[in-house]
Amino acid sequence: MSIDQSGDVTIQGASLRSLPKVSLHDHLDGALRPSTIIELADAIGLDVPEQDPAALGTWFATQSDSGSLVEYLKTFDLTTAVMQTREGLTRVAREFVEDLAADGVIYGEVRWAPEQHLGRGLTLEQAVDAVQQGIEEGEDAADRSGSSIRVGQLITAMRHADRSREIAELAVSFRGRGAVGFDIAGAEDGFPASNHRAAFDYLAENFFPVTVHAGEAAGLASIRSALIDGRALRLGHGVRIAEDLEVITEEGDEVQVRFGDLARWVRDREIPLELSPSSNLQTGAIAKWGKTLADHPFDLLYQLGFAVTVNVDNRTMSATSLTRELALLVEAFEYDLDDLETFQFNAAAAAFLPVEEREELVEIIAEGFDV
Asked: Is the four-CA dihedral 157, 163, 165, 168 of positive or negative sign?
């Protein structure tokens, strides 16, 4: 089947976009509408590579398809530059929620680093408040259009900087006011979670949920540090946990695998993997296994019982949506509705919400997939 950016296809009589979905790994500064970037850039006198929204979208996708996380991250210089004012942050957050709702998402978590949005005089608190205002405006707009969506903030610290304890305190202070969890992001290789042990100790003392980018640009040692030093409840990407699996035999659909201790721990403890298929290709996270989606260890991890979830990472950079990511997996691995429903159940169970609210999500998903 042919899949465009919207990704909508019909599977077993159901429109993929209309199915209820949960999005756990979605960066605010990686999900701007190209038209919005152009308008916000014009307002502050910032030059952009292309003045046509479609051409700018193509520019992002081309620049991001580098095979390197470091090169991929350079595209964020443009998006963060237009997110330095209250108005810019609020608009981007509002449109973020509207776009999720249009994609069939019923619950999402948006991760972003407030410390990167202080260039025009905002304080950390003002930046978080501006994003929360946009989220609530987006939720209200979705409700008026007949959709129902809830979005929580994952307050993120940059792992190459030294403000993680301060950002952790900021996240906890916004508990109950929009913040549902904490993350560290940025260049992973050379900046392990152990560098931020003080922040993670503080979060643990305050029982505040943590997800950590690990197993994308760095391997098993990074994942180990995320779990031990970061007390991570989820792994951001985590795809390179497959390096701790040794395929012994492979005959048809039967695969015999030897688990390393780390992989077995992640699988047996059902630690969710926030996998992002298109992004993992672009950044070279799956280079060990190949260069196409069919080479992605997603299916191996799924078949072995890991708690896999499907995510977009950065919609602008990957020119994608959650609907499209699911459609690409269907194309690569011939998944059916039962498989896609399992991925949503996994994501709902992994959401940083009280158990009662996670159970409600599961019920909505089950009802929506009953077609």
From this structure: negative
Joined tokens for residue 166: 């301060």
Residue 106 to residue 351: CA distance in whole angstroms: 12
Identify whether the C-beta of residue 157 lies closer than 8 Å to the C-beta of residue 113. yes
**What DSSP character marks residue 313?**
B
pLDDT, tens digit, for every residue of 143-165? 999 999 999 999 999 999 999 99
> For residue 123, how many other CB atoms are within 10 A of its CB?
11
For residue 356, the one-letter residue type is: E
pLDDT at 193 over 70: yes
Q: What is the 3 state secondary structure string of 139-176? A: HHHHHHCCCCCEEEEEEEEECCCCCHHHHHHHHHHCEC
The CA distance from 318 to 154, in Å, is 21
Q: Classify the C-alpha dihedral 365-176-162-120 as positive or negative.
A: positive
What the block records as the tokens of 52 is 């046509």
Q: How far is residue 292's CA from residue 281's CA, in Å, rounded to a whole number?
A: 7
| Domain topology for 10-363 | TIM Barrel (3.20.20)
Residue 338: CB atoms within 10 A of its CB come to 9
Structure-token pair, residue 42: 């014009």
pLDDT in tens, 218-241: 999 999 999 999 999 999 999 999
Global pTM exceeds 0.90: yes
Q: What is the pLDDT of residues 65-97, one digit of tens each?
A: 877 777 877 889 999 999 999 999 999 999 999
Virtual torsion, Cα 347, 110, 198, 228, nearest 10 deg: 20
- Tell me the CA distances in angstroms from 149 to 94, 100, 107, 311, one per residue in order: 12, 8, 6, 17
Residues annotated as part of the active site: 216
Give the orientation angle of helix 34-44 with respect to helix 53-64, to 10 degrees.
100
